[in-house]
Amino acid sequence: MKVKLSLLVIGIGLGLSPLWAEDTNITQSQTTQPASSPFTFGFQVGNITLDGTNYLSLRLQPDLSIGKFGIGLDLNLEFDPQWNFRTSEWNTWQAVLSKILYIRYGVKGDPFYIKVGNIDDFTLGNGWIMRRFSNMRDFPAIKKLGLALDTDFKITGFESAVDNIWDWDIMGLRVYVRPLQPTQIFLLEKLEIGGTVAADLDPANPTPPADKPYQFSDGNAKPVTVVGLDMGLPLVDSPWFTLRPYADIGYIVNKGTGEAVGIRGDVVSIIPYRFEVRILQPRFVPIYFDTYYESVRSIKYDSLENFTNHSAGWAFTSGLQLMKGALFVDFTIEDNWEETSLPSLTLALGANKQILQLFDIRATWTRQNIAEWNDVFKYESEDSQLGLLINYYASQNLILSLVYKRTFKLDENGVIQSLTTTSISTKVSF
Q1: 204, 261, 290, 361, 406 from 295: Cα distances, Å
Q2: What mean pLDDT do residues 197-211 have?
Q3: What is d(CA 381, CA 52) in angstroms, rounded to the nearest whole number?
Q4: Does residue 383 or residue 224 have the better pLDDT?
Q5: Least enclosed by CB within 10 Å: which of 62, 131, 155, 422?
């Protein structure tokens, strides 16, 4: 049954991959198409539900991008049905600074890259410890000002991640060296060896009260630390094809270890791929800080006691991007070769108005522990996350937008809690 289910999930991914591809995370801050000028200005009017209360929402979203520099703001005003102003979004200096949607210089992979604000793709190294971690899971109900800072000095460099500078809980640092770079030996000069440490200092992480959304407090759970070593060697790096073999080892402190070897790269810059083989010891899971992490962070460390067996498995990621991203899909499938675990699927798909004329549609769906076909669509589970964005272009500058997000988490007693954010707004861009 398990083999058949895995093949079925693979078939779904491979069947969709010729149609669309690109890793996507649905958020209100996401732009729908490339800006035609360095400065754009968005204006939204609509309804949003936060913590069970409906608000009339007015949002001003100026965005400036010049060369490697970019800055975006999210100036939000909310009024409840009695026209009471939601002052908690403006009455502290943290709230005011959190109107910064992002500030960046460069992009990931540049010799110098820094980004402050909403970040949905924190990844360190090959991603064995932290990959695609997002500080935007509950945005805009809970806003976090994250920090990513990378530098590359050719011989050495580092990558870093902080999920919230108002509440330094989840942090990661990877330092790497290219020991043969001075020798200029063909290929070997690019050999890269790195070490990573990532931690969650407050896994309990109480949710801020609705009337004080920037009053972050600490729980009583013990900190979690994960460390690792990695190695990679870019063998092929051309516009047509890239290939990078790699190896990783990780250790969840006071729990277990896990190793992986694999290859990753892309074909003609539009078909990304990654395949890795995993050897997992008891009480270890790969990519500890993953897309799901904030949904299960309060119990994830203790739940590692349930992984009592050695296991071997695999993961495959691919997709395809057509017409410069106008039509895309991205999928990741993970499973073990044993009967002790279940496959998981992450799928992102969409099309913009270049294809649909008057609409942009983007959707993401993630699901772990798929025991049967119906589990792929099961909502009420901490293993599920759904995001949907639909934009209707009434005119060139007037857009009607629907944003829907649904996430779940388990509290310290193992009781499932859901957070649904829905907004319908009118955007005016100049």
Answers
A1: 11, 28, 10, 25, 11
A2: 87
A3: 20
A4: 224
A5: 155
